[in-house]
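Technical appendix A lists one of the benchmark inputs used to test multi-chain prediction within the project. The record comprises two sequence entries:
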Amino acid sequence: MLDAKHGGATVASVRDLKVHFQSKRGVVHAVDGVSFDIRDGETLGLVGETGCGKSVTGRSFLRLLPVPPGILAGGSVMFNAHAVCTSCEGTGCETCEGTGRKASQDRSVNLLGIPSEDMRRIRGDRIAMIFQDPGKALNPTLPVGAQIAEVFLQHRTDELIALAGLPADTVGAVRRFASQSPRFGDGWLLSLPGVRAQRRRVEEALATMVAGALAETQVPNPAKLMARYPHELSGGMRQRVMIAQALACNPDLLIADEPTTALDVTVEARILELIRNLQQRRKTSVLYISHDLSLVRRISDRVAVMYAGRIVEIGTTAEVFANPRHPYTRGLMAAVPGADTPRGKLAAIRGTVPELVDPAAACRFCGRCPYETGACRNNDPFLEAITPSHLVACFIDHPAPSGERPSYDRATA
Amino acid sequence: MTVAVEPQADDLVLSVREVKKHYPIREGALQRVVGHVRAVDGVSFDIRRGETVGLVGESGCGKTTLGRVIAALADPTDGGVHYNMDGMMSRIDRLEGKAARTFRRNCQMVFQDSFASLNPRHLVIDLVGRPLKVYNEAVSADLVERVVELLEQVGLGRQHLYRYPHQFSGGQRQRISIARALALNPEIIVLDEPTSALDVSVQAQILNLLNDLQEERNLAYLFITHDLSVVRHMADRLVVMYLGKVAEAGETQAIFDSPHHPYTRELMSAKPDLEADANVEVRGLEGNVPDPARPPRGCRFHTRCELATPACGWEVDDVVRWLEDAPGMFEHLVGVERKTDFAATLAFDSEEAAGLLSMAVRSEQVPEAMRTAMRRLSLDGDKVEIEFEEVGEIESTVRGDGRVAACVLMPEEVASWKNM
């Protein structure tokens, strides 16, 4: 429906995703019918204000939602994991941009429907996440090296054993050590002279892999950093550790949930550059969640604007920023203080974000929109294309069922 | 408004003079003072009636501490904030009795986190009415009316009187904070990141409100923020702080047109506008803010400055900092014997490591300015003796138009860099 005809494989497609939350006052429709695709190797920016459901959308990829009180009320998140490229058999060709891998439809799974065991295998390996506050997301009681090591222990046991120069059918206890699944008595087994040496080799291999992952994020002296605890690091450094952890297994899809909001502007620019470089080199798809428009414009190929649990506008970055069609997108852009805005004349969006308890079938921007008409209050607009790649959910660009049509010339503010 | 003209005494509201705020670092069982964190280290500027002064800088540069000193929530270690009390400039930490109360009612503060600054157990009427009660401005029915009046000024109403802070959204809570600050009709309000926790659309509402109130009441604002687009929109004059010192100060427009300090320029180019060309490459700053307990000598920014010259105050700490980041070097360092901050002997556990260091500091691995500033470098077994040119503190210089900048470079040299 959305953009299949534009060629390029999709790594994930969200269809009519509905995530609701049970609250005292009723069911909150936090995400209410969201559909979009993330193409292979692209960065999709997801912008919106606090409480519009962008983080919930991002977290639903990894099923990190608290259920209950959350309710997965419907829809699907299809994920097409990468497989060896069919046209070049992994040697790297044009269709897979030299990576030897590309998203494959036949490995498609619905992330909301698969068993937890399968989800565990995907989480951190094929889909990874960078959280907003690295101070909270990192474990304060473990050195950062040990936290990155967990990713390898969970998902890269075979490589680890191979790198340690051990045979694939090595001692069970060592294998269990390298996959973080100890059994009763393993401690004793691992202390036996011969096994202890093997275990040490696995540990050395692990340290090499962790240092390699950290070096990717351009930190000075990775070997020294590994032994540090999160509280000893600055905010920018912690965020680099989290990026190293997220990209350790070379995921197909990276969910970045406001990764620079807690950082200073000077550090933010560095982190952004880092994410972009790594993304371009590895052709990872990124879902970049942020409330900062200028930042999203710099990093994304396409942008989706969310409001009150819905996507109101989606298109290429150039289209959305050069020609915003939805009144909300326009409002957001006008609210950012620019060089020439006279003081005290910022175009604020009036009113506040509506509560999403049992919303009526109407445009959710009603009440705040300067252009609304009767049609907006009685009908629910849905995303419709105005150019092949630019979709807007507003009656301004496609008339309501009644034929009535608001226009930008007729502001009723 | 021209800044070059010597301000009239009655035009001034506050005058900040060489303010320092140092926090002691205590260690050991006896809590001996082993050093000081120099949060604010000699800052001067003026605030005039009806104007907005923006205070910007990275986190940890001391801007919030300075805000607290100005609002008399913390006493300065040295220097002072002078308040214009009926034409007399008096130091606020020496005010007593009635004079102190006069200052306190004329200088109010709005904090960043409205969750933390509004007591969750109090109703709006208590929160906003408290200053009126404390200063015996109003009681009972009159009090309610005054509070309603204040709430209406900030876009709230009578229906909000008997609610608790948690029942409001972030923007509304910030409005309550502003109403409380306005209650005693102050001359100056210190706004400490009032909008950084808010969404852009709500931020726009609050900024418009602040501007309307300023025009109505001729308020002076000290606007503390890290967001340059907000400060350019709001501030008449700007003070850019770095590690407790003023890097640059002057009229906002002039600073945005041509920054005289490389740090200002870095800040500005790190966050381009929505209108700016999206394809311009944006680079942030390398490295971290140095430890304010041991700020770098000379210019404090020289450790991260791309334009640093040999005259910027290179010192032994720069070599140690470089060693920390160099793989496999810091472990071999066994001792640093300092003669001064600019001369020291570094002892290593092997002759090889010492040799490596003396090679490295002669090579491209360290900035060229640092190599030029080095007066002596001698290798003696496993010891390396290093001596740098001694450089004093880089003082702020007045650049005309009331612009002040603390940089050894000429404005043209900063301007030609990065071709902004």
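The radius of gyration of chain B is 25 Å. Residues 1-7 of chain B have pLDDT under 50 and may be disordered. Comparable benchmark entries are summarised in Table A2.
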